[in-house]
Each structure stands twice: as structure tokens, then as C-alpha cells.
């Protein structure tokens, strides 16, 4: 089993918090669209905690979407990925993160990584 968590202080650039010029609602809607397109089952979404929990065979993902200032459309996304594959768990977990971030960047202006350390 492999666990990957993105955060402001992650050492790897691809595992650092990513920021986009979008509102919470816009980023969440696009993220859920990506999940549906990739056939992930959305188990729960909690706007109080700004989290979306999804599953696919052998993988669980919790996404934390945060808009720091309601007046400023700058929103971050972090992931907690639990992959349970006999071989290649790390590769599949990081591939999921990279794929989602690339798709979000196609839709929204990328502001940067770890902007609020």
C-alpha cells in the first residue's frame, strides 16, 4: 500500500499544494467532473470541511479544496491518496495526482505551488 499526501511543505514539487485562479465552487465542480470522467465513485462531498472523498478499485482519494479569501478567487487543492496495488502503487498514486493537476491547469490559470508557507 502506498500513501501520498500533498502539502505546502512537501519536498517534491509535484506533491506541493497547487493554487489556481478559481473559486472553491469552480475548482470543486471541475475536480468532480474529472473524477466522473475517470470513473471514480464519489463517495461523499463535504462543503463544511471542503473535502471530496472518492474511490476506484484499489485506490481511495480525499481532496481538500480551499479558497483562503472569499473576495479573491485563488483556490488550492491537496490530495491524500491511498493506493493498494501489489505492484506499482506509488506510480499509480502519483500518476493520479499529476493527471488531475494537469487537467485543472487546462481549465484554470495556474498561480503556483506552496504560495502560503
Question: Which terms summarize this structure?
Answer:
117 residues; alpha+beta; seven-stranded antiparallel beta sheet; 2 helices; 7 strands; globular
Largest sheet: 7 strands, antiparallel
* Count of separate DSSP helical elements: 2
Q: What's the gyration radius in Å?
A: 13 Å
CATH architecture: 2-Layer Sandwich
Q: What is the number of E strands?
A: 7
Classify the beta-strand content into a percent band.
35-45%
Helix fraction bin: 25-40%
Measured distance between first and last alpha carbons: 29 Å
Class computed from helices, strands and strand pairing: alpha+beta
Number of domains: 1
Output the CATH class name.
Alpha Beta
The CATH topology label is TATA-Binding Protein
Which outline best applies? globular
Could you state the CATH homologous superfamily?
Kinase associated domain 1, KA1
Quick summary:
With about 120 residues, this protein is α+β, with helices and mostly antiparallel strands. The chain contains two helices and seven strands.
Q: Can you put this structure into words, describing what you see?
A:
By secondary structure, the protein is of the alpha+beta class. The protein has one domain (2-8, 18-112): 2-Layer Sandwich (TATA-Binding Protein), CATH 3.30.310. It has helices spanning 24-37, 89-107; strands at 2-5, 18-21, 41-46, 51-56, 59-67, 74-83, 109-113. Helix 1 (24-37) packs across helix 2. It starts with a strand and ends with a strand. The model has no long low-confidence stretch (mean pLDDT 93).
Amino acid at each position: 500500500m502506498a500513501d501520498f499526501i500533498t502539502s505546502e511543505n512537501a519536498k517534491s514539487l509535484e506533491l506541493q499544494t497547487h493554487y489556481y485562479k478559481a473559486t472553491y465552487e469552480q475548482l470543486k465542480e471541475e475536480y468532480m467532473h474529472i473524477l466522473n470522467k475517470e470513473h471514480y465513485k464519489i463517495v461523499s462531498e463535504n462543503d463544511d470541511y471542503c473535502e471530496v472523498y472518492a474511490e476506484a478499485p484499489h485506490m481511495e482519494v480525499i481532496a481538500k479544496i480551499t479558497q483562503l479569501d472569499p473576495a479573491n478567487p485563488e483556490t488550492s487543492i491537496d490530495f491524500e491518496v491511498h493506493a493498494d496495488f501489489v505492484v506499482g502503487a506509488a506510480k499509480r498514486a502519483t500518476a493520479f495526482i499529476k493527471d488531475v493537476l494537469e487537467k485543472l491547469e487546462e481549465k484554470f490559470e495556474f498561480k503556483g505551488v506552496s504560495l502560503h508557507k
